[in-house]
Structures are given as C-alpha cells and as structure tokens.
Design goal:
535 residues; alpha/beta; Beta-lactamase; five-stranded antiparallel sheet; five-stranded mixed sheet; 21% strand; globular
Length: 535
C-alpha cells in the first residue's frame, strides 16, 4: 500500500504502510515509547487507531462531508492521526475555546465586571441634587436579584431622593447589539441575545439579555392561559392570546417578540391540566430592561427618583454610591463553557477590545483573539472570526489550530481552571458534564474526556482532552462540516471513546463504530442541548 502523502508542516508525516521499515519509521514519528511498549506494538496500535478513525469518518452518514480532524499525544509530543487538519472549517461553538483562552490571556483569570451607581453630586444629605447613573461594564451575572441588592446598597448609603433622572451608562461597549454575520432569524432566541454593557440575566445560568416566558393552562377548556415574563419590568408588554385546550389536546403554545419591540405575544393552546410552557426569549435593548428593573428596585427600597429613565454618560469624578463586582473570570468560565453561553463569549470579546484598544466593540476585540493565540505559540493561519461564540457561519478555524491551543494551554497558569470548565463526558451534573452530560455514558470516555462541543446547521464539532487506557494524555479536534442529516455526534463520541481505549501495548479494541444516539437521548437536531433547553 503506498504511503499517505505528507500533510502540511503543522505535523509529522502519517505512515500507514506495513513491514519492518514502516514499524521503525512509525516509532520515529510517534516519539519516545510509553512503558514497556515495543516499537512494533506501538506502531501496530497507532495503525489500528488510524484505521478505526478512518472507518468512522468514512461512514455513510458523513458521505460528502468535510471533516478536519487531528489527534496528538501530549505526553509523547507526537501526531497520532489527522485528516484535512489544515483546512479552515466552520467551528461552531468550538470558537469558544479560542475566545476563552484569549480572554484569560488578555483580561486575566482574576478579571471581574463592575456595575456602579454614581451621583452627579455628593449626596451627603441623602438627596442627589441631579442625576443618578447606573454604569455597567458588561457583567453577565447581573440577575434581577443582583439589581435588587444594588438598589438596597443605594438605600443603605443614605440616599432617599434623586431630583434628576436615573440615567443608564452603557458606554463601556459600543451600541451594536448583534454581530453583523448572525442570522436575523435567530434574534428572538436566547442564544442570540443582544450584547450590552448593561444587561440582565434571566437565570443563574446567566443567560443575558433574555427573559423567561412562561404560561400555565387555565382551569378548564376555553379559559385563557396565565402568561408571564420574568424578570418583568415596565418596559415589557405581554399580549396573551393563549387558550386552554381539551385535557388530551396537543400543546401548541408559543411566545414571540415582534422585532424592534418588547411586546411579547403568547398564542396557541395548552391542554387543561397539562404541563406549563416555559422558554427563554430575548429582549430588545437590554440596557433599557436593566434600567427599568433597577428603577423598580430603587422604589421598592424607598429611593425616590423625581425625573425619568434616560441615557447618559456618568461625568468624571461622579461620586460612587454603590457598586457590585462579578465573580472572577476563572469561575465564570464554568457556566460559560459548560453550558456554551454565546452572550458570555461576545461580552469577553468586547471587554478585550475595551482593555487593549479602549473600544468595547467586535472590531476592536476580535483581533485580540489572534494576538493572544500568537503569544501562546499558536499559529492562526486561515482563521477568520466574525464573532467570539461561533454563532456566525462565516467563522473559520483549522483543526490543527485548535489542537495547537490544546497543546500549549497546559503551560499557562490558568490551565487548571480552563480545563475544569470544559464539559466532562457522561457526568450527570450539568455544571460538570455540561453539554456532554448525556454523551459517552457507560463508555471508556466517561469521566475521562474534557471537551467543547459545537453545533450549527451543517457544522458540528468536538475538541478537547482525552486520557488513553495507558494514562497517556491526548488532545483532539473534530470539525465536521457539510454533512447531510443529523449532526454526527455519535461519530464524534465514537472517536473520543476510541481515544480513551487506545493503548500502545494492545492494538485490539472493541468494535470501532458506535451507533448514532437517538434524539430523545440528548440530541436535539442542529442545536446544542443548552440552546434547545434540554440540559
């Protein structure tokens, strides 16, 4: 069999031929041998691994697809497998690996987001003779409860009255809420929420710029459903057209927000005695929602605002009345990466731009990702990012760029926190297993594969760390594009399981092709489970 053509300079030459010469050549490629494994057994094991991964990628469900795949050994500093690893492909949420590592490099693991309340004059007598400013820096952990606690701090500072306006200062970021290349049809859904320096998270997963739309059936057929939004503020409007259907009828209720407004319309029906409807929906102009929510909290705590709610930039030297800081970035990584939170990624991009260029924008922030990766020793040839989350179908990344980052990251002081924040295969705790909670359970990969998932229409990915049967540390990246049908998560899982079973001493393994799992076992069409609200 002829030798496989040499790949780009990003990695050593692949060898698939047999015979003594090939065994010696493979041993040289693979690097120092682990334990008592001989050169011949190691070459046989690697050849078997390559054959199995080839079989998985050549399966009928990937006919016509393009797959960028690379597997490397951290312990042996060696290439174990690659296919089209130098081809730029759509990474989907694997882009978050690049964004998060860059943010740790640029902002630092101790970075926090501050939200301040400032007065235009010293309110020593309890009265602000002027305006009160709510100033944000993009904190994604500002829930309704956090705004209430901030209002309570204002009251406890002694402020009882503001003669002027409550002004929202979101100038830390630019005014662009949506990335240019996002699909407009995604805008109502929480994974495509508008980005703002002042925002509200709908829950403790910190889904920013969103509200929880909920409806429960009425007492009997024909009765209106009970519809609500949370957190509710007076900038939002509910139109309830939902009805209660017959007891055994099919649920058809939905909640929609008209573009450019904050009018939410509930329509359809819920069966009498049936389950509630509950989904996240984005708000228009998150700054307004945050400020109206804060205004209501100030009133609740006895602080009277004489003017209106408006926009404005806090003057230099304004007196800070109350402040709140978020958890440090290294802790925010857990909900960010475990649950693949798009809003967090974009907030970090704009925060990097603000720190380096003094401008909180995508234009200023995205170049910082490439710069940070280059500082880490990662080449970014062919990389094109138009957002930080991977929601844009125009993003392009090479598999060997991802594995290079995975190889370089262990040398960084933030690596332990970063790796721990990656989803852990098969762990049922959603803040441990994340988007891999329902994947690879009961296999050799369970509890041994830390990896980031990714899904868009026609693009699916899985990249991260695996530990072999011998305890060897491996890195891998699988970027699948242009497939037809369901996302090939079963194929990705089978590769990760095969890496977990890999042994340099024992080339024989379990059957090489694992079946695709069913949709009701954790797969939800083209969307990651967090996007569909199923994990």
């Amino acid at each position: 069999m002829p030798a496989t053509p040499a790949p780009p300079a990003a990695g050593p030459r692949r060898v698939r031929s047999t015979g003594l010469i090939a065994v010696v050549a493979a041993a040289a490629l693979i690097g120092p041998l682990s334990g008592a494994a001989s050169a011949e057994s190691t070459a046989d094991s690697v050849a078997a691994l390559r054959k199995d991964i080839d079989a998985l990628l050549d399966a009928p469900e990937l006919k016509g697809a393009v797959s960028g795949v690379q597997v490397r050994s951290l312990d042996e500093d060696a290439l174990l497998y690659e296919r089209d690893a130098a081809k730029p492909l759509v990474p989907a949420s694997n882009a978050k690996l690049l964004t998060s590592a860059a943010a740790l490099d640029v902002l630092g693991p101790d970075h926090t987001f501050a939200t301040k309340v400032a007065a235009s004059e010293d309110p020593a007598d309890g009265v602000v003779d002027g305006d009160l400013f709510l100033k944000g820096t993009g904190d994604p952990t500002m829930t309704a409860g956090a705004y209430d606690a901030l209002a309570e701090k204002v009251a406890k500072s002694g402020v009882t009255k503001v003669t002027g306006d409550l002004k929202a200062d979101d100038s830390w970021f630019d005014g662009k809420g949506l990335a240019a290349d996002w699909d407009e049809s995604d805008e109502p859904y929480h994974y495509a929420a508008q980005i703002s320096a002042l925002t509200v998270a709908a829950n403790t997963d910190y889904d920013t710029g969103s509200v929880n739309a909920k409806a429960v059936p009425g007492a009997s057929k024909g009765a209106a459903v009970k519809a609500s939004l949370s957190p509710m503020a007076d900038n939002l409007t509910v139109q309830n057209k939902g009805e209660t259907g017959a007891k055994d009828s099919e649920a058809s209720l939905g909640a929609a927000r008209k573009s450019g407004t904050n009018t939410f319309t509930f329509s359809g029906s819920l069966p009498a005695g049936g389950a509630a409807f509950e989904e996240l929906r984005t708000v228009h102009k998150p700054t307004n929602h945050a400020t109206h929510l804060f205004a209501a909290a100030l009133e609740e705590h006895g602080v009277e605002v004489g003017g209106t709610i408006a926009r404005g930039v806090a003057p230099k030297g304004a007196d800070t009345v109350a402040a709140r800081e978020s958890m440090p970035l290294e802790k925010l990584l857990v909900p960010f990466l475990k649950l693949s939170n798009n809003g967090h990624a974009e907030i970090l991009v704009k925060s990097m731009g603000r720190k380096v260029e003094g401008e909180g924008s995508w234009d200023a922030g995205l170049p910082q990702i490439s710069a940070a990766l280059n500082r880490l020793g990662v080449k970014t040839d062919g990389m094109e990012l138009t957002d930080g989350s991977g929601l844009a179908a125009t993003d392009k990344v090479r598999a060997d760029t991802v594995t290079a980052l995975l190889e370089e990251a262990p040398g960084e002081p933030w690596f332990a926190a970063w790796q721990k924040s990656l989803p852990l295969a098969g762990d049922p705790d959603r803040m441990v297993g994340g988007t891999l909670s329902e994947r690879m359970r009961g296999t050799a990969a369970e509890g041994k594969v830390h990896a980031k998932t990714g899904s868009l229409t026609g693009a699916s990915a899985l990249s991260g760390y695996a530990t072999s049967a011998d305890g060897e540390k491996l890195v891998f990246s699988i970027l699948n594009n242009k497939y037809e049908g369901a996302p090939p998560r079963g194929t990705q899982d089978a590769i990760a399981v095969r890496l977990s079973e890999f042994s340099r001493e024992a080339p024989k393994v379990t059957p090489r092709v694992s079946p695709q799992r069913k949709a009701d076992e954790g797969y939800t069409g083209d969307l990651e489970c967090t996007w569909a609200g199923t994990c």
